[in-house]
Amino acid sequence: MKTISKILIVAILSISPIINAQTVDEIISNYFENTGGIENWEMAEGIKMSGKMIQGEIEIPIEIVQLKNKMMTKITIQGITFKDGVFDGETLWSTNFMTQKAERKNQEEADIIKNDLEQFPDPFLNYKEKGYTVELLGKETVDGTETFKVKLTTKPNIIEGKEVPSISIYFFDSENFVPILMHEEIQMGPGKGLTVEVKMSDYQEVGGLYMPFSLTQGIKGQPGAPIVIDSIELNPSVDDSEFAFPEDQSIE
Amino acid sequence: MTMLRNLLLVLLIFFSFNQNTFSQSSKDIKLEDLFGDLKARHIGPAVMSGRINDMETHPTDSKILYAGSAGGGVWKSSDAGTTFIPIFDKYAQSIGAIEIDPNDPDNTIYVGTGETWPRNSVSIGDGLYKTTDAGTTWEKIGFEKSERIANIIVNPNNSKEIYVGVLGALWSDNEQRGVYKSIDGGETWENILYINQSTGSADLAIDPRDPNIIYASMWEFRRTAWSFNSGGSNSALFKSIDGGNSWNKIHNGFPSGKLGRLSIAVSNSNPDVLYTVIEAEKEEEKGLYKSTDRGDSWKQMNNDFGITVRPFYFSRIVVDPKDEDIIIKGGLSGSISKDGGKTFKDLGYMHSDIHDVVFDINNSDIIFAGTDGGVYRSWNKGTTMEIVENLPLSQFYHISVDNETPYNVYGGLQDNGSWYGPSAAPGGITAKHWKPVGQGDGFRVLRHPKKNIIYSEMQGAENVWRYDVENKLIKTIQPLPVAGDEEYRFNWNAPIATSSNKPDRLYIGSQYLHKSENMGDSWEIISPDLTTNDPEKQNQENSGGLSTDNSGAENHTTVFTIAESSLDENVIWVGTDDGNIQVSSDGGNTWTNTIKNVKGVPKNTWVYHIEASSHDSKTAYVVFDGHTSGDMNAYAYKTTDFGKTWKNIIPSNDVYGFVRNIQEDYKDPNLLFLGTEFGLYITINGGDSWSKFRKNMPSVAVHYIDLQKNTNDLVMGTHGRGVIIIDDISPLREINEESLSGKLFFFKKDQFTMRDQSGFSDSFGIETQFVGENPSNAFQLKYLLPKRHTFGKMTLEIQDLDGKTVAKLSPGKSKGINIVHWGYRIKAPKIAKGKTFSFGGFTSPRISAGNYKAVINKGKDIFEKEFEVSYDNSSGLNASDREFQFNTVMKMYNMTQDLAYMVYEIDEITESESVSKRFKERITKLKESLVITTGDNYVGMAKRQLREKMADLYAKIATSYDKPSDNEIDNLMLIEDEFNDAKKELDKLKNRIDLSSISLKSFTDFVNE
Fold first, then answer.
1. Complex prediction ipTM
2. What is the pTM of this model?
3. Selected residue of B131, B697, B788 to mutate for chain A interface (largest A Cβ count, 10 A)
């Protein structure tokens, strides 16, 4: 009995530093350490994720490409592939499902994407150099799991002519320091003021980096739509023309 | 070395021992972390909304607006009051005041909790909260014991300087009252105006030209369970010209004698002009007073009914920010003056009881009013009003459920009558699904256990209605005194109970227990006076203070809760508002008051609810509510011996907020649900430890809880957020040391029915209306994970018993309860690629009834659970009908995929270089008859080809509840002929060319890609 209580004390002592207060930079540094190391993360130039969106019994094949200043999502429905949310560095466009033709988004929306892409490959990577700030808001239980709640403020966006701060909240699992949930408030449209949440799991290794292969996104408090990632390609080669607005359809 | 090894082994053993037993005895299970996907859904209604305490506009953006509700939290509109969303769900939902920092209006907001129009039924707050990120995170910054905060003002020139008017406790003495000031943004506070323990700050205003000039009204007030007093020698209006360092009374021209509640407003366009509404001793001296010299002198302007009515409930006076002569006064109807207060007229028709009004910052024709029935907008300065339709703030006193499918929820509302509505409706539960079944304030609404008859009541049982729903016949059935009876004393919220033993039996409580065996047609009294009958608590005609207020809301020494045991009709429990727990075990012949056996509850504490156990007739639960004497503690007790002994079932003091209701589970007597002023608590160990349920569940006052027996749904009547339901709480019965000891535990339920019922829904109005969430009709796989899955792959498949994949699903990964939904359908068929969509092709076939299994792969582990799926009997189809439908659907499913492969082959051949141009033309012509190759997905759609005809018929049959009709089969034959011809034609064409140079996927690879 005596031995056990001694061991217990030793065990508690050795565990306590982990339980004790963490600074936000320690959390972020642990996160990168546990997911491949800062150096590996810094080498990421682009990413291509292939998977499927699950909408009830319909599985929609989806491919997401993100480079440092470009992005694109491809969705395939009944064999027909649509490009959605395509950004070529300047112009943001999507495909109209009715006419199957490309349509431009307004410049404000394009500028928001441009701002967002500066976060690539990870908003916390060299966040100070990017001019972002982070703040530890404390601990919170997510999915029954203790997390560190970290507020990330990136560059403000202009929305409806007004500068709006760009804030997201990340919840890092306190055991292994990877984010398992992200919250962000919708800043425009009819859902303005509601919170979007993305849940992350199934972290797996890709080219030395650990990334979530399962994402569920939706409005907080409502059922989300899962995306299952089948494969991730780091630094893919994608031709610039893939991001270009199809000019033959444009209206001058 | 060996030593070390042994030590490690000991460690290992110790920790595994630790894991399995020590940390997981049921007392130590941290239930709050295990709720997982178990989550509340809100069904409103918003048709009548609920009481609003305070409204606030943004100083520079007219689209932004806040409403602070009496019991449903803080709501924000970003579209000029068209729709609102809640931003304060985690905290006390009773709101006193909202303030937007004028120097940082997009981010910094203060919320003072605790409503300030203190009627009998008000809730409480627990302090002042601040956000600096527009409501993403809130921090409590003091005033924990304030109970009610009336005003918050941030200096328009200095965000660090904040004034807070604390009204304070309603039912008890308290020192945390008066005016407070912070000069460091709320980190520290100084009390700058204090009178005594019963006088609080009722209103506060500053001079916009000079923020050092502050006006503060102080109000002496007190409520007990049986009376209310407004006014005294301490009520006064004060002014400071030095930022609150010194204060002077400004009563020059005021009424003589004692004062009651006072309000104060400063004109923004001319801050020399002030208005106050005064509650005074003499009727003729009450009313609106105006000063044009910053309070140096006052002149009475008006004492119309609309200005003097119920000062404690309506006191707010608001000045048009652009015109000092336009003022609006809250009231029964609300009043507007355009001549500086000389004359008033009522605001346009809306819900009565107007507590606050705000003007649009740019256009004073636009106003917003906060009432007992929600927020109203006006575009013409209050002449006509329109209601905001998405504020589900309804304040239920009680709810009950029936046994229909879907079941209905019945309940009565504060100032908004009695209603019932469905727990599910096509497209969601909207305002139109709720039906009124009473008037006035509503309380108990009960469905007759067997007949389509509804009982409801209004305040003080002034009317108790029996409504024959089918024949639309209404009768009032409240008991009336007969010769020799004392006058009946009914509580404002009088108890009515039905009996599960005798369906036509009805109970109602005055100071006696009344019983009817014929649905209220006749009554007999089956008890003596069960209360303390304390005459000191029966003088309601003198209640109100300076303004008599005898609405019946203070009636006391009455019976408040009645419960007949479902196991023995002779066992009846009665609780009274003055602290008696009476029990009869002989149908009311003899009664025993068991309150003396309860230890640890102050004398005469309100017995709020008694729940007779459904497991044992000697067992009951009681909750006490002491808040009307200032006691905010949580009390819940259990007896197993008819009240001879009572055991405290909140021994660990882990419940925050006083308790109003308790519900025992029908299956597991250790599973209990507790409704408190700050939300729902759950225990799985008979009360040894309680966990707060937060999953989509605001910290709202839960006044009543019921458990629907067929669905195991927990239904809550909240006082501020309508009806909130937790669907199927049965997994909670299975959480224990054992189920948590493995890596994954499947909950027991293994029988599922595929529902055929559906319905039409319309979407008119839902753009701006609240829509209540529906329960899921899908198959639900429920399992428990002791730890969240974060690293590595985890998959879930439904398979038939031979291991063939039926559907691939996305598994839940949360620690605790996971719920995965599946619509009993396999994936949609592979569709031939055309220019446009085949809309029929989005249909998935439903599986046939039978046995299936869920298979979860998690890391290296595989977990399996078998379950049975059966058909819905109500649609009247027999086994061969079902088989015929299933086989037809699958035949068409396969045909659709065969066609898809044919088109794929054609496309590959067409792209091949080894084929001649002429041949390509020929095969393209065939393709054009198989799929649409032109047009778009809207009205530019091309002529339907074989794909479209085939997929449309397939969808028609697959989505029908019925077996295929003769006409459908004939149509199928037509399509099949066309398909066979096309197949022959393609085969013929393929024979003419050399296919070896073209590499084709196999059919299986093609359909599964």
1. 0.88
2. 0.94
3. B788
